[in-house]
Specification:
Two copies of one chain form a homodimer.
Chain A lengths: L1 H4 L17 E2 L33 H8 L10 E4 L1 H13 L3 E6 L5 H7 L3 E6 L7 H8 L4 E4 L12 H14 L2 E5 L19 E6 L12 E5 L2 H14 L5 H10 L4 H24 L12 E2 L6 H10 L3 E2 L1 E2 L9 E4 L4 H17 L1
Parallel strand pairs in A: 1-10, 3-4, 3-5, 5-6, 6-7
Antiparallel strand pairs in A: 2-8, 7-8, 9-12, 11-12
Helix pairs in contact in A: 3-7, 9-11
Chain lengths: 353, 353
Amino acid sequence: MSELDNLTSPSIFIGRQGENGIISFGSGQPDLPAPREATEGINLLRHDLRYGLIQGEPDLRMALSKEYPKSTAENFVITNGASEGLDLIFRAIGKGKVLLPRPYYYSYPPIIKLAGMEPVYTELNQGRIDLDDFNRKIDDCVAVLINSPSNPTGRIESIETLKEIEDITRRKGIYVISDEVYKDLIYERENYHIQGDQVITVNSFSKTYAMCGVRVGYLWSSDQSLVNKAIEIKTHTSMNTSLIAQDMALRAMKAPHEYILAQQNIWRERRDLIYKGLCDLGLDLWKPEGAFYVLPKVDKPRELLWTLYKKYNVITYLGEWFGAPDRIRLSYALDKKKIEEGLNRIELALKSL
Amino acid sequence: MSELDNLTSPSIFIGRQGENGIISFGSGQPDLPAPREATEGINLLRHDLRYGLIQGEPDLRMALSKEYPKSTAENFVITNGASEGLDLIFRAIGKGKVLLPRPYYYSYPPIIKLAGMEPVYTELNQGRIDLDDFNRKIDDCVAVLINSPSNPTGRIESIETLKEIEDITRRKGIYVISDEVYKDLIYERENYHIQGDQVITVNSFSKTYAMCGVRVGYLWSSDQSLVNKAIEIKTHTSMNTSLIAQDMALRAMKAPHEYILAQQNIWRERRDLIYKGLCDLGLDLWKPEGAFYVLPKVDKPRELLWTLYKKYNVITYLGEWFGAPDRIRLSYALDKKKIEEGLNRIELALKSL
């Protein structure tokens, strides 16, 4: 079963929704349309195509600054998605250990290592940060990377936990990198912006506005010297983020708040459906409070994944790619009919093993 | 004169063409329009905005493969400009020394260092590679970075030199990274694609099609394991290059060859004008054979630059940013009237010092 043994990443599964009746619980992107505002009214023929500021277009940064208390446009860098935001920040910090909650988004360890830093893991408890374990491990570290709502757990951290992390890191002078790309996809409460001079927020237009392939994200920090360092690195490694993409991001922000609320309702219904469905199949899983992932515990994850794929035309991701070897990850970024059909097939696969 | 002392990069000069009568010889981008083909016919409202392949859109890579002998779409990675192509390649190689001709494009040393590598310099002779010095220094290196036509010298390497570099590096098993972003801007001959399994070409749509701010470039190599490593890094650090930008690049390739020829004629006329003008002022400089830069030797470059800027409203760049401390760099990416007016002001400034 060498094909299975070699499965160290989801690469063979990407972009295969609907192909030959495949139901994919793999893809980590919204299937819903972007708001009309994102694309309407852009005249490409007349668009300025010359270099823009490396930091990002001033009008977009100005619009973002209104969402961050006591901020100015200077505190932002517009990036090629949140991925580049993370890459720039870790390269700007440049050395030392980074505390990383496990399970984690699969790009985190490589991004940290590529920047010459070293991940140190704190184990999540019920999908949430365990402050005891966190406190035991943080003293060695120069930075913490948190992700609430989390990919792959679907969990959010309580405001108390976030405030305690603010406190600890402020006292100890440790950076907090807060990846909030699912900030508008919380079912339980409003997003809480973690505060402080030691905080760097990384964010994206991809999930909120269903425009993953356009690649616009940003980083925010009130530590201007760190922001400047990120800009300096970006000057050499990619220059300005594509101007058309930035234009679309600015326009997307003009979508009415109902656009976001309507999406949240759809995600909540899907969450309820898949959570109940998997519980009914007897699986052990955490109830998602944000994002669009579930991470059930299963016996023989590799065998299940392969059976689902080969016999039942269902794509899932191995938990091991996210630091959770006894689990599989399912994204519920697909419509309810497909979720129901997928659940039926999962039931058959589980019975067959 | 602390403002002058602190001038370690062109940041204060960027994007200031025409502002309050400023004539900028600073900007390294075409002032000419992109071809209509680049933007015509794109329907943003109906565009797929979901993640694309990290490697880049297949139709764009397929179109590029026709320009590279014995290539397939698999040999390419579409990147956020040539900058990201260089960054990915050096990160993929990851350690060792890189031989770098000096003067160099100012991002080269930081890109090499950010990847954990070390630049070793070979001094250009008359703006061209000196094979004796090159051969003396290459044995220590794992890679060579060449740039013909060159920013900032405007020179091209002879085909004999390029073939000799092919030979040496093939025999010694040393990578050649060939930055050919000015490949369509050669006044003297056709571009020569350096060949071999040890070669990585980095290229861009920015200069050929006057779309710098759109940020589309690519890397090419027949070393598939190196290409795959670059894709793996990009998976974590930025994901796919913006889909709209890739769409524009593919369409730009459909512009008739006359578009490129017409531009070359304009650049040649400007080259002749500025070269003669600066020679007539008694300056010592190399005649550009490609790209759109001249790099004259001047007395007291910092004082001249500052006088030009403060008293004569003319922007130039310090040669020291490019490893040429006794020179200044002028881009002639501006229309002939402005070049003439700029030359008049330079004459006044030189006389005043």
